[in-house]
Amino acid sequence: MVEKFLAGSAALFGDPITIAIFVFGVIGGMLFGAIPGVSMLTLAAILLPFTADLDPAQGVMLFAVIYCTGTYGGAITAILFNIPGAPENAPTAFDGYPMTRQGKSGKAVGAAVLCSAIGGVASALVMMAATEPLANWAIRNIGPPEIFALVFFGLAVASSVGGRTIWKGWMSVLLGLLIATIGQDPVGGINRYNFGFTDLAAGIAFVPAILGFFAVSEIFVQAEKKATGQYDAPKVGMSFPSVLELWAHKFAVVRSILVGFFCGILPGIGATLAAFMGYGEAVRWSKNKEEFGKGKLEGVISSETANNAATGAAMIPLLALGLPGGALTAMMVAVFQMHDLEPGPLVFYNSPELIWIVFAAMFYANLSILFIGLIETKTILYLLKIPFQFLAPLILLLATIGAYISRGLVLDVMVMFGAGIIGFLLRRTGYSIPGIVLGLILGKIGEQNFAQGMQMVHYDMITYFSRPICTILIIAGTLTLAAGVYRAFSSPKEAG
Amino acid sequence: MGQLTKAHLVEGAAWSLIVVVFFGYSFEFNQSIEIYKFGATGWPRVILLLLLLVTAGNFYYQFRHGSAIQKGRVGIAETDESETDYSDPATLLKVAGVLLTPFIFAYLLKPVGMYSGAPVFIALVIYLFGERRWKWILGITLLIYAILLGLFVVVLNAPLPQGNVSPFYDFSGFILKMNTNLQNLW
Prior knowledge:
Chain A has one domain. Helix content of chain A is 74%, strand content 1%. Chain A has 21 helices and two strands. In chain A, strand 1 (183-184) and strand 2 (191-192) form a beta hairpin. In chain A, helix 3 (40-47) runs antiparallel to helix 4 (56-81), helix 7 runs antiparallel to helix 19 and helix 12 (270-285) runs antiparallel to helix 13. With 186 residues, chain B is mainly α.
């Protein structure tokens, strides 16, 4: 493995053009992740046509690097503006943004830098060592029934965070699932809920929906505060977390690496569920559950470690099985196809040099987060000093471009602003925006795998539950929901 | 009425309406799929049934406890719980302006295009957010517009909506021609 890694490193750093592409990917991913309103997906969508002119290894490597650094960059906007750069950064905002309000933005961003790097490097190392055996294990043990069971468990966990009551948490997730049914059904290709708009036959693209629910609704919330004189500018805090503070959360880091890697390795799940589950597990194991959501450093650490730990793992189903784990890995499939390559087991035999350049690039990209991230952080924190009336139009305009660019449809811009208004109204009444987004992302995956799973077990539930991973995940999800029902009927807080 | 308020009734009615509309529309695609027992409507109808049950649960909770936050909830941002006073019509107008302006901008993107529409949109949003110093509005508008052109047009060559109505379409053409000339310089 070491020889292959060194060979990959030599190929990466032996060619000036490859180095330039690597550096562009590192800086571009961080910047697009950290600019509110656009994300790594916007950059990837813009760059996709240009990768046709690159060498296949350079093209795939560029996207892998953007994936690593963009996942980190999205944490910055989540912490500073309550606008997650990508859905996988949504749980980071739960505690990161309250920390910014308390003047601890430096601590939150510093923890995000370090934990993203740790999670990413650990994931890259495991990815290099274990891609082939893990891919073999996944092929034998993970099928559609298990993926559906994991989606069920993930949604059960997601509904328990974010909403003002468990009912609102569930309603948020169910609304996301309902929105995901718009478009063609995944089994028969029958058009559902297009309401007469032909463009809706392709479904609601999740980039505009995410931009609307997170970025636009946040702008609207701040606009309302401005209009009513309640606006309070966030405080800039430059102090980074101390080594002792971070060391105190070592178990949270290790737990989130494991959770992130496990979620990332499963096809179709990706880093989003990893972040939610990393956060959910941090809450579950904490003695001070009540402090989460109010500016607890452990919340940022758990979410950011888990989502970056999933980036390396997400390469395993992509490279070993040809199954993308999220939007960016789906674009990587397109990069492969542009060069007449198909990601899958044969890539390991036909293009081993490509695989190891990508692995090496991801390793170094995660290390770069640590060094460039720390330098960049202090500059980015000054974004908070820009008056919001000047930042808001920039964010709205960037979000408009981000929504339009992926499919070239004005309808997507309308969907984004519609989602912004719905998100604004739902936030005011205590619903969970991350819950909606997770439902939206996992809805299609859940339905598709449920249908395939049912066909595999011939609609026999005994056969379904004879699969141990399914049984464990369904029981865990059911227990999470049952605990929620129990709490739903317990007495509420006095706050109103 | 327990702890219910008018807002709770509107909220419950809105969710029930969503369930009714989506359930009614599901008959439009109520087709069986040969290889799949539950057809195209199975999954969405289960979601709608669950949504109806949870809406009832939410209504019951609000009947018993009003808008109180449930014990043990995590991840609720403080901004989500603000209670805003809309008794002043000017406040309502300002917020409605902010909510509707982006929608109108999106609606006009097809005929007007990004290149002509963006500066007006930027200036309007700055104004709606409370800035009244016209020099600042003009300066920041030009700065953001320059960032838009520099990053997305010159550096990334991103395809943005050009509009389809004259003179907006002609203006987009002019900007793109300038960009081509600039690119040819190097």
